[in-house]
Amino acid sequence: MHHPKSSVMRLYIPRKCGGRGLLSAKSMHNREVCSLRAYFETRRESAMHGDVVVCDKGLNPLSLAKEEWRRPVVLSTSDRETVWMEKELHGRFYKALHAPHVDVKASVQWLRFGDLFGETEGFVCAIQDQVVKTNNYRKHILKDGTPDFCRACRHPGESLRHVLSGCSALANTEYLHRHNQVAKILHQELALMYCFLEQRVPYYQYTPVPVLERDGVRLYWDLPIATDRTILANKPDIVVMDRAQSKVFLVDITIPHDENLVKAETEKKRKYLDLAHEIVDMWGVESTEIIPILISANGLIPVSLAHHLRQLGICDGSLAARMQKAVLLDSARIVRRFLSLQP
Questions:
Q1: What angle in degrees, to the nearest 10, is found between the helix axes of 118-128 and 318-339?
Q2: pTM of this prediction?
Q3: Can you say whether the dihedral through the CA atoms of 27, 29, 34, 39 is positive or negative?
């Protein structure tokens, strides 16, 4: 399904480029007209083809007898991407998708797999195109006089960015739920890799155990780390202690908005730096690595994510796609529930 205000150009861009992958009947028609006219022009010397050219005086779209024929427009993928990029609202996601720190191929996996319902896919695209009817959209785009105040936290500026990742009223409920969904996917993958589990279950049915231990490996879930000196940031989402490698991994998940991916990753590394040094001294390991796992609220995946997963020893290429799908589904759920609130 297509939201009436979403980008039309994006409909006809291939899914591997971030579009919806539909074929434009108009473009296909125009392309065939151009091809057929070119075919007849190359065979004018043939008696039969020459007679057809002479007789066709506007009888069909080819207009073979006309010398000054107006060639119908056939937009290429790059032409459509240019139109998409130049749109004030629609183009914001395109520019974020093609930022140098974003993995374009991984970020459009959900479109390439095509395993969302059509209605959900259309709604996610509407969120990315920023055409959902928030108070900010109604005031500045529709201009219907709606006051631009958040209906949840009552602060000014109810934009989609605010709804997806900046509303204080949603931080400890909706955003936390979305964060935990991604964390559970990663925790279960680590538990399977270290043989704490025998088979995978759907992430929404998975309940992580606070501490798992086996063969010199200890896996912590959402537990504060007791330290000799006071360290405020002492509770990463997941901690992996591997005695065999003499390593500890501090894993923390965050779901920022699109333009905050680089900033959020830097902040996560800085946040747990003191804890990492303290763990090396307390637990007697050779090194402690800080692993920030980031996926934006709109499903953008940074280039660094694949490297961080390899650091954890995870080579399953589908893991990032599964985490991305969980983020997109929960972001769509958050927006739907938010819009159901009374303005």
A1: 80
A2: 0.90
A3: positive
Hey, which bits of the chain come out as E strands?
A: 211-214, 217-221, 238-242, 247-254, 287-294
Q: Which of 301, 283, 284 is nearest to 292 (CA)?
A: 301
Cα(304)–Cα(264) distance, integer angstroms: 12
Phi-psi region of 252 (alpha: psi -120 to 50; beta: other; left: phi over 0): beta
pLDDT tens-digit map of 17-69:
999 999 888 888 888 888 887 787 777 767 776 767 667 676 677 777 677 77
Cα four-point dihedral sign 150, 152, 155, 161 = negative
The single-letter code of the amino acid at 295 is I
Contact between residue 269 and residue 292 where contact means Cβ atoms under 8 Å apart = yes
Separation between Cα atoms, residue 209 and residue 304, nearest integer Å: 28
CA distance 327 to 25: 34
CB atoms within 10 A of CB 147: 10
Look at residue 274 in the predicted model and tell me its pLDDT. 93
Q: What is the DSSP letter of 224?
A: P
| CA pair distance 282, 113, nearest whole angstrom | 45
Which tokens in the block code for residue 32?
A: 């065939």
